[in-house]
Amino acid sequence: MRIAIDAMGGDHAPNLIVKGALDAAAQWPDIQLILVGDSAAIEPLIQGNLPSNVKIEHAEEIIGPDEEPVKAVRRKKRSSMVVAGQLVREGQADAMISAGNTGALMTTGLLVVGRMEGIERPALAQLIPTKNGVNVMALDLGANMDAKPEQLVQYAQLGSIYRSKVDGLSNPRVGLLNVGTEERKGNELTKAAYDLLEASSLNFIGNVESRDVLDHNCDVLVCDGFAGNIMLKAIEGTASSIMKTLKEAFNRSLLTKLAGAIMISGLRSFRKTMDYKEHGGALLLGVNGVVVKGHGSSDAVAIRNAIRQTRNALISNVTTSMANEISRK
Amino acid sequence: MRIAIDAMGGDHAPNLIVKGALDAAAQWPDIQLILVGDSAAIEPLIQGNLPSNVKIEHAEEIIGPDEEPVKAVRRKKRSSMVVAGQLVREGQADAMISAGNTGALMTTGLLVVGRMEGIERPALAQLIPTKNGVNVMALDLGANMDAKPEQLVQYAQLGSIYRSKVDGLSNPRVGLLNVGTEERKGNELTKAAYDLLEASSLNFIGNVESRDVLDHNCDVLVCDGFAGNIMLKAIEGTASSIMKTLKEAFNRSLLTKLAGAIMISGLRSFRKTMDYKEHGGALLLGVNGVVVKGHGSSDAVAIRNAIRQTRNALISNVTTSMANEISRK
């Protein structure tokens, strides 16, 4: 299992990216990590000898967070992100991880790593933590802004295979993100996708409203990239806003600080549930390899968790399963 | 100011609808309320004489919460909701309020009350409580599922006039709900709407992400009805899920209950901010009258607040301002 890591992508690159990678290399000796980026910047971060399952692949350019994705990927062929993608394309790595520019990573997946045969548009998928801890995989969360009904069905296939192979769910329940649970609800896209999903061999359970996502009433939630992105960021923004308000309420006086001290252990597990760092990264599904997007503000813990997630995907051989099932349709 | 109230719509109809209306009639003697519905069900709820500013308009039919909206409005001409709409259409009332079937109320607004001249599609608008308490008016939240760019500009006009006339904001800031803040982000719809909004005379501040809505960085947030509905329900669902988890954490032991008792006053104002009952209803903008949608589970407090909101809209004469400004374009 060879995983290429864009050591230069993300707010805390290269320091915490390299630290997280070294932690993971020590924890899982069965993986080989390739740190891609400016070797002059990476080498000083390694104390002592390079572990035997880590190597450095020099790449002199960097794609910045605000660069226009397609232009950047086309022009910066020697950037850490594109070189990592080339390693996957050329079979020198099985997976890549980047916490850099999201748009550029999706473009790298599409143009460098390459689409899976039979897939029209890859989808960005992420596990959303639910109350019971089982999570919902939502996709597409922003890879493809104007989706067609057939593409939503492909997302459902990709998500179902992932949940079944990687998470071991049998017959994962597929929901369609919609404005109501009744059959004829929605816009033109969801109405057409509903009919296609119902006619498919997937375990389609019907429409799901965004207010019920955290209740875990489906395992795979399908949506177009625009609506999915709006939903995900509304969940994240609301949770973070409430957590901030709570923190202020606990900090108001000595007495409320005492209450905070009493509550801290009870709220810690809750906070952990809501914390993106615990949940690894987002996945670009439908490309020829495992491509994982770490959060832009990923620290060493987040990177180690993204590597754990990538390792699980590689162990399950999910990309091969997807390629086989999609080409059979 | 004559306000027709659908006394039979909502989970707690007619009891709490009538109670809320009577409370409002006592609080604001300058309004006249028309309770529309089955008089045999309404009359027993009134203790003593009917207040001088309340009357009952008998309507024998009821539109149920699960009825198909267009069919129900067309067939049930004697339903409390449709009769309330007719009172507005015929000039016998200036506004209507219903906590009943949302789709049917939008249809009643469109087909019975009637579209404002120059408006292609009315929009459902709602104030979303923000951290600083100023609120964001988001629209459309579900009246029109497949919007055109020009319609998004009309929503922006309607919302701006409302915030300026009713809430007294000067030059309200208009944001476009999108997946990123940069100019060229989004789907075909938002890209086209962006250009139109920028060319308009509105105070357009650019794209706004759903994660930033609660930070109040705009006064009017424009979106298509599908995306808006997804965003609103994601905010509501996340807030309610977190509140439930918190409640459980406070109820875990005697000690955590003590912490809860310490925190209760600090959290009460926060809870109030998040409570739909405090914020009145949603408004159907772009029709010939003030049409307010109360939450399905509205109690007496929610109805009284919806009446307060309707009264404010009538005092500001916002419908006339909208009609004048839209026809000038």
- Sheet-strand content of chain A, in percent, reads 15-25%
CATH superfamily descriptor of the largest domain in chain A: Isopropylmalate Dehydrogenase
Secondary-structure element series of chain A: EHEHEHHEHEEHEHEEHHEEHH
Which outline of chain A best applies? globular
Name of the CATH class of the largest domain in chain A: Alpha Beta
Largest sheet of chain A: 11 strands, mixed
Question: Summarize this, please?
Answer:
The structure is a homodimer of 329-residue chains. The first copy, chain A, is α/β, with parallel strands linked by helices. In chain A, 46% of the residues lie in helices and 16% in strands.
Polypeptide structure, described:
Two copies of one chain form a homodimer. Chain A has helices at residues 15-27, 39-42, 69-75, 80-89, 102-114, 149-165, 188-199, 225-250, 254-274, 300-316, 318-328; strands at residues 2-6, 32-37, 54-58, 95-98, 123-128, 136-139, 173-177, 203-208, 220-222, 282-285, 290-293. Chain A is α/β, with parallel strands linked by helices and 329 residues long. The first copy, chain A, folds into two domains: 1-118 and 286-316, Isopropylmalate Dehydrogenase (3-Layer(aba) Sandwich); 120-276, Isopropylmalate Dehydrogenase, CATH 3.40.718.10. The mean pLDDT of chain A is 93. Chains A and B meet through helix 8 and helix 9 of A and helix 8 and helix 9 of B. Chains A, B: Pathway: Lipid metabolism; phospholipid metabolism.
